[in-house]
Specification:
The protein is α/β, with parallel strands linked by helices and 304 residues long. It is 23% helix and 28% strand. It is built from 6 helices and 17 strands. The protein has helices at 12-23, 58-71, 134-137, 153-162, 182-190, 283-303, and strands at residues 2-8, 28-32, 75-78, 81-87, 90-95, 101-108, 112-114, 130-131, 145-149, 168-172, 194-197, 200-206, 213-218, 224-228, 231-234, 238-240, 269-271. Strands 1, 2, 3, 4, 5, 6 and 17 form a 7-stranded mixed sheet that branches. A 5-stranded parallel sheet has the order 8-15-9-10-11. A 3-stranded antiparallel sheet has the order 12-13-14, with no helix packed on it. A hairpin with a 5-residue loop joins strand 5 and strand 6 (101-108). Helix 1 runs parallel beside helix 2 (58-71), helix 1 packs parallel to helix 6 (283-303) and helix 4 runs parallel beside helix 5 (182-190). The longest helix is centred in the last third of the chain and has 21 residues, at 283-303. The two termini are 19 Å apart.
């Protein structure tokens, strides 16, 4: 079978694209790369900024997206894209476990993953006190001391979430002001058991079997110190999931070059969601990308 479009990824961008593609009457295949629907929102305790869904859990929202896809009877294949090959006017997709798939167009909605801090001790203690998901591991820090590293919305949200369990939460930020939403900043500063450490970076994670402390350096004074904690949560941004051969042109950080129409430098390939170059990476912008990508797919198919 030759598909009109194949969508790679089952986060908000991919699932929305599948909904719009099916409604447009396109012969569609959704390749679900993750066993959990919703992408990064699945690890979010509470979504507060998606219209009409205030307070919904991230996992629940992801399931609602998938339920909508299932109701439209979109064909779904659970597998992982390995490589993209050009076959004349078609795209030939090599998958990890399944036979190759041919399609007229391709929507890449591979998303992004948490960025590592890159300091000594971090890799060695992943799962033993080093975490990248507060909602996944926060409950383990009931009546303990935790640290969060970062200054954006995710770091602020993680600190607030952990404050429900931990006796003390240190929020370590390399600058003297946060870049996250003001409402989150205000909540953090008003929470008694959260202490903000400004102008500071983590230089090492200490511990033999599990995290015991962090080595810190103040960027202004150059003073060093040791902070005793039971665990540390890294919230220092994301890196795009681009471990695929034959991807369209990317920027210096690895994000696929594409505008609001999701059109890439490779004809017939479109990039949606956190994978592409964009100003804001949120659930609502990912969902919008899914819709825009299919609009561009339809235009491409019509012109062809």
């Amino acid at each position: 079978m030759i598909y009109d479009t194949v969508i790679i990824g089952n986060g908000p961008a991919g699932l929305t694209a599948a909904i719009y593609a099916k409604r447009a009457g396109l012969v569609t295949l959704l390749v679900a790369e993750s066993p959990v629907d919703g992408g990064q929102i699945a690890t979010t305790y509470e979504v507060d900024n998606y219209p009409g869904m205030k307070g919904i859990g991230g996992m629940e929202l992801g399931m609602k997206f998938r339920d909508h896809v299932n109701q439209l009877e979109v064909e779904v294949l659970e597998d992982r894209l390995v490589a993209i090959e050009e076959e004349g006017d078609l795209k030939r997709l090599r998958l990890l476990h399944s036979d190759p798939v041919e399609t007229k167009t391709l929507v890449l909605a591979l998303g992004a993953n948490h960025r590592e801090l890159g300091v000594p001790g971090e890799k060695e203690l992943i799962g033993a006190g080093v975490s990248y998901c507060a909602t996944c591991d926060g409950a383990f820090y009931r009546n303990k001391v935790a640290a969060v590293v970062g200054g954006g919305d995710v770091a602020l949200e993680d600190a607030l979430f952990l404050s429900r369990f931990a006796t003390k939460v240190y929020l370590i930020h390399r600058r003297d002001a946060f870049r996250g939403a003001k409402v989150l900043v205000d909540q953090v500063l008003a929470t008694e058991n959260i202490e903000v450490i400004y102008d500071t970076v983590v230089t090492k994670v200490n511990g033999n079997i599990k995290v015991e402390s962090l080595e810190l350096r103040n960027k202004v004074t150059e003073e060093t110190s040791t902070l005793v904690v039971n665990g540390v949560f890294m919230a220092v941004g994301t890196v795009p999931n681009t471990d695929v051969e034959g991807l369209p042109q990317q920027d210096e950080k690895g994000y696929i070059l594409a505008g609001e129409d999701c059109v890439t430098k490779t004809p017939g390939i479109f990039a949606a969601g956190d994978l592409r170059t964009k100003q804001l990476r949120q659930v609502i912008t990912a969902a919008a990308d899914g819709a825009n990508a299919i609009t561009s797919v339809q235009r491409f198919l019509t012109n062809q």
